[in-house]
Amino acid sequence: MGNIANTYYPQSGRLVVLGAGESGVGTAILGKDKGFDVFVSDLGTIADNYKKSLDEEGIAYESGQHTEDLILNADIIVKSPGIPEKAPLIKKLRSLNIPVISEIEFAAQYTDAKLICITGSNGKTTTTMLTYYMLKNGGLNVGLAGNVGKSFALQVARENYDVYVLEISSFMLDDMYHFRADVAVILNITPDHLDRYDYKMENYVNSKFRMIQNQRSEDYFIYCLDDEETMKALPRFEVKAQQLPMTQDSKVEYGAYLDENKNIKINIPNRDEFEMNIEELSLQGRHNVYNNMASGLIAKVQELRNQSMKESMGSYVNVEHRLEHVAIIGGVNYVNDSKATNVNSVWYALESFSTKIVLLLGGVDKGNDYEMLRDLVRQKVKAIVCLGKDTARIHEAFEEDVEIIVNSSSMEDAVNIASHLAEKGDTVLLSPACASFDWFKNYEERGNKFKEAVMAL
Question: Per the database record, which ranges form the Mur ligase C-terminal domain (predicted)?
Answer without folding.
Answer: 321-434
